[in-house]
């Protein structure tokens, strides 16, 4: 690991000031991804600002009926929070589908949004990677790309965003609050992560020095009809090959409102609003689900070793929509916290 | 013997001194002030500086769980956190859970159920299982399996590990009358 200096911020303003005062600096929260990347020399910050102990760990009601998730609340505290379990069970399920208890105990909500791709070539500093070293080329295109994306890829990068939590968030559409050298602002979750285009080195739309302070969930949590379906190589402690988050509002057997987002398929959590529009007003039938799933993957492009993801995603969408419409949860969710 | 005169100071290839600072950690109930560089992981601080080698370095990348310790009662991977981030935190390692004469209930259960072969993952398994007990969310075998999935055992002693953890989980829940 390259040497660096370290400081612990006392409040948000102090953190922003400290980071701006050091070149090649980075914020560190739980550190579960950043420290790993530093060990691999993928990230080489010269200064770390510890934000893990900033007073941003509360999970609290918002006046508009929503729920504020503090940026430094851990993934564990968020998943097991009583309000999250009751009002946003989709989020509870997605968080618990990811990582391990140890990692969730350390990882923060802000850090979950900031985690970087697990594309093999991004981690392997001996190989070209446009995300790690802009202009060097993409080794995954034409290489071993089983974990790579099928939607929204570019000629520069086919990496995927690795988070489970963010797939549920894409469906729930919170607002991301940030503080930076130019003050505070909010970013719609949809606009937080970006597609690679010709600048894959940028995972998101944060400006230099900005720090996430909270995720503000809207009131609507789709607590009755939801599903988080994660498909992976082993049943636990593995990244998604494909995951699907669904939230439905039903009127009898008719879909009144729908949210649909996919993980493991794109550079960002892949919410498809045109598919949501197609579901609206339709009967919750296998025919509807099949049509919508086909629509979602219509423009998907395989890269060779990940071709299977197109059919896997199509089938996973059908299954998740069915589970959500029927009010079932996926097998393996016995740890929802009801006992 | 004289050194040839050059424009740059002669260092003999010795790297510049590592900038270290005091870091105060509460380890197994004892306050220790260690002189550490900021990039020292909690795992390395425990093993190399506090000389508590019970905590094991497996993958050093958060993939195996061998380095699991308890920080303020919560289990984390000590390889993926910096020691300097834990100033004044309470850290419990395998050495703090029991003694050879007085094993903790989990340590005794691991012996009773032959829950290891080579033993390298065992300290992490036991610290993780202690964290699982502290959390109080695992009751069934399926729940224990899911919530112990962050600890790998390459000898494949999972059957014994599950039996050992289940025994203590069952005993604790009957003790509290749940």
TrEMBL record, chain A:
Transmembrane segments: none
Record key words, sorted: FAD, Flavoprotein
Xref: SMART domains: CO_deh_flav_C (SM01092)
Ranges of residues in domain FAD-binding PCMH-type: 1-222
Annotated GO MF terms: FAD binding; oxidoreductase activity
Domain of life: Bacteria
PROSITE patterns per the UniProt record, alphabetical: FAD_PCMH
Pfam families the UniProt entry points to: CO_deh_flav_C, FAD_binding_5
Designated name of the protein: Xanthine dehydrogenase YagS FAD-binding subunit
Species this protein is from: Hymenobacter psychrophilus
From TrEMBL, chain B:
Protein's UniProt keywords contain Glycosyltransferase: no
Signal peptide: none
Domain 2Fe-2S ferredoxin-type: 21-97
GO terms of molecular function: 2 iron, 2 sulfur cluster binding; metal ion binding; oxidoreductase activity, acting on the aldehyde or oxo group of donors
Chain segments carrying region Disordered: 1-21
One Pfam family cited in the UniProt record for this chain: Fer2
Keyword Oxidoreductase found: yes
Stored InterPro entries: 2Fe-2S-bd, 2Fe-2S-bd_dom_sf, 2Fe-2S_ferredoxin-like_sf, 2Fe-2S_ferredoxin-type, 2Fe2S_fd_BS, Aldehyde_Oxdr_Iron-Sulfur, Beta-grasp_dom_sf
Key words of the record: 2Fe-2S, Iron, Iron-sulfur, Metal-binding, Oxidoreductase
Entry protein name: Xanthine dehydrogenase YagT iron-sulfur-binding subunit
């Amino acid at each position: 690991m390259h040497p660096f200096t370290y400081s612990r911020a006392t409040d948000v303003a102090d953190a922003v000031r400290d980071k701006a005062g050091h070149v090649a600096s980075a914020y560190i929260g739980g550190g579960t991804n950043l420290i790993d990347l530093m060990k691999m020399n993928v990230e080489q910050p010269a200064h770390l600002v510890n934000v893990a102990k900033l007073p941003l760990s509360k999970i609290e009601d918002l006046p508009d009926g929503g729920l504020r998730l503090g940026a430094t609340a851990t993934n564990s505290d968020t998943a097991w929070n009583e309000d999250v379990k009751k009002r946003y069970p989709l989020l509870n399920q997605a968080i618990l589908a990811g990582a391990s208890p140890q990692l969730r105990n350390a990882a923060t909500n802000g850090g979950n949004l900031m985690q970087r791709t697990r594309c093999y070539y991004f981690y392997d500093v001996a190989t070209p990677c446009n995300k790690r070293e802009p202009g060097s080329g993409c080794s995954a295109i034409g290489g071993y790309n089983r974990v790579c994306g099928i939607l929204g890829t570019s000629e520069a990068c086919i990496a995927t965003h690795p988070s489970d939590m963010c797939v549920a968030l894409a469906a729930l559409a919170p607002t991301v609050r940030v503080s930076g050298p130019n003050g505070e602002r909010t970013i719609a979750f949809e606009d937080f992560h970006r597609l690679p285009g010709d600048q894959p080195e940028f995972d998101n739309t944060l400006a230099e020095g900005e720090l996430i302070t909270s995720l503000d969930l809207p009131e609507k949590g789709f607590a009755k009809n939801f599903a988080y379906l994660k498909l992976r190589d082993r049943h636990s402690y593995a990244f998604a090959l494909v995951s699907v988050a669904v939230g439905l509002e039903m009127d009898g057997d008719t879909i009144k409102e729908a949210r649909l987002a996919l993980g493991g398929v794109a550079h960002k959590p892949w919410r498809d609003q045109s598919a949501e529009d197609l579901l609206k007003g339709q009967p919750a039938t296998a025919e509807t689900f099949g049509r919508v799933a086909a629509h979602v993957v219509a423009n998907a492009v395989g890269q060779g070793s990940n071709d299977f993801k197109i059919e896997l995603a199509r089938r996973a969408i059908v299954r998740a929509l069915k589970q959500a419409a029927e009010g079932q949860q996926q097998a393996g969710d016995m740890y929802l916290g009801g006992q | 013997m004289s050194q040839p005169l050059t424009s740059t100071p002669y260092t003999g290839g010795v790297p510049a001194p590592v900038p270290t600072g005091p870091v105060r950690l509460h380890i197994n109930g004892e306050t220790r002030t260690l002189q550490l560089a900021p990039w020292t992981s909690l795992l390395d601080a425990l093993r190399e500086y506090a000389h508590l080698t019970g905590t094991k370095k497996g993958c050093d990348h958060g993939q195996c769980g061998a380095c699991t310790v308890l920080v303020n009662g919560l289990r984390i991977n000590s390889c993926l956190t910096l020691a300097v981030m834990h100033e004044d935190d309470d850290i419990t390692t395998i050495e703090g859970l029991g003694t050879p004469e007085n094993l903790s209930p989990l340590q005794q259960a691991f012996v009773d159920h032959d829950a290891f072969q080579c033993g390298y993952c065992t300290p992490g398994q036991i610290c993780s299982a202690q964290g699982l007990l502290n959390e109080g969310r695992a009751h069934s075998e399926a729940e224990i399996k899911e919530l112990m999935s962050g600890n790998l055992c390459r000898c494949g002693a999972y059957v014994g590990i599950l039996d050992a953890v289940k025994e203590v989980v069952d005993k604790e829940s009957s003790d509290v009358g749940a």
